[in-house]
Amino acid sequence: MQKILSKNYIGFTKSFGPGILLAAACIGGSHLMSSTTAGARFGFSLIGLILLTNLVKYPFLLVGTRFTAVTGLSLLEGFQKRNKLYLPLYLLVGLITGTLTISAVSFVSGLLLTNIAFLSSFPVMDLAIAVLIIAGFVLLIGQYKALDRISKILVFLLTLLTSFAVISLLIKGPVGLVSSSWINSDPSPWTLSNLAFLIPLMGWMPGPVELCVWPSLWMFSRSNDTKHIASIKEAEFDFNLGYIITVITAIFFVILGSYTMYGTGNEMFTGSGISFAQNLIRLYTQSIGGWAKWIIVPAAFAAMFSTTLTCLDAYPRSISSAHGLIQRKDKGHGISMKEGKRLKKWIIIHVFSSLAALMIAKSGGIGVKDFVFGAMTGSFLSAPLFAWMAMDTMNSKLVKSQYRYGIAMKSLSWFGIAFLSIFSLLFASNNFFGFGN
Fold first, then answer.
1. Does the structure show a pLDDT above 90 at 172?
2. What would the 3-class secondary structure string for the chain be?
């Protein structure tokens, strides 16, 4: 019995990684920005929507982990085998959303650095560019091992400090009458005019649906690193742990926003991007004390840097894999020397394309709200496409019948596709055709 337990423990520890990387990718823009602002503007009234969005995305984001564990194929291989259009569509949309997302998260990382005294005088865009270049060097030199180790440390640090902040704040109590927001938030979030906030909130909550591919590819790198092939039980435990962390921290940030700034949420994005960074750090210092700034500033930056680092690995990794599969050069698992060289090329391409996006934003005077929320909105509008591709591949003949989704997960998947599609159509109708205005 002891040997069995020891074997299971070793298996879980060797499989532990891709799920935490998923959490590192998610605990960034959607949590630090959207969840916090949701609490500041609407109190607790959006917690239900946040939990629902996490629920409806769960079966789609799980697909990559489950599919690879039971088939030995990457989800991108599954896309290619299931429908000849799936892989080119993923490649096309991924090239666009990848550049926007990487530049957006590095932009927020640069904003947070302005809270450090000796960096406060530097232009935000210059700091964002520095973050992007440093992240690129870390991945080019350290590759998957560096990503895995650094992300685990940063996720642990942020989760620990955020938990401490929330507990301190719950003991101290709210600054306003936030308890009433459970039933009647003032203002109400349930208006068409607030779609411009709700859609970005859901777009990166807990992350874009195209993230379903990432754990699938990271599983091969983790297996190559530890010389252990994860079972379905081990792989799903790792994924679920990371997912639970993302959900809990999302709620924590809503509490931080609602307890410290309820009724003043519209001020979160007023003025410059630097004012947003200062507002964000104030959430922590008001809940713990001014002394905490020197702990919280690096923790908040750690969250965004881990997101930048993870996205800068995952988007090029998935594009590189799709590239290899379309040209039929390899399986796209990213573990051979040839695939490693191609991945480095795509990392460099993404660094330069994201730098170009940052420079365009700088010349156009685009603020933090428009920049980041634009990327979030794009992720949400593409979500129904990726959700369908994931569900269709998971429930195809590529997967043995006993491992396909059962009635409950299929029902949740269909509800999720309908949910994502209806909100996307509602947003498009409101913005492009004036419906509800």
1. no
2. CHHHHHHHHHHHHHHCCHHHHHHHHHCCHHHHHHHHHHHHHHCCCCHHHHHHHHHHHHHHHHHHHHHHHHHCCCHHHHHHHHCCCHHHHHHHHHHHHHHHHHHHHHHHHHHHHCCCHHHCCCCHHHHHHHHHHHHHHHHHHHHHHHHHHHHHHHHHHHHHHHHHHHHHHHHHCCCCCHHHHHCCCCCCCCCHHHHHHHHHHHHCCCCCHHHHHHHHHHHHHHHHHHCCCCCHHHHHHHHHHHHHHHHHHHHHHHHHHHHHHCCCHHHCCCCCHHHHHHHHHHHHHHHHCHHHHHHHHHHHHHHHHHHHHHHHHHHHHHHHHHHHHHCCCCCCCCCCHHHHHHHHHHHHHHHHHHHHHHHHHHHHCCCHHHHHHHHHHHHHHHHHHHHHHHHHHHCCCCCCHHHCCCHHHHHHHHHHHHHHHHHHHHHHHHHHCCCCC
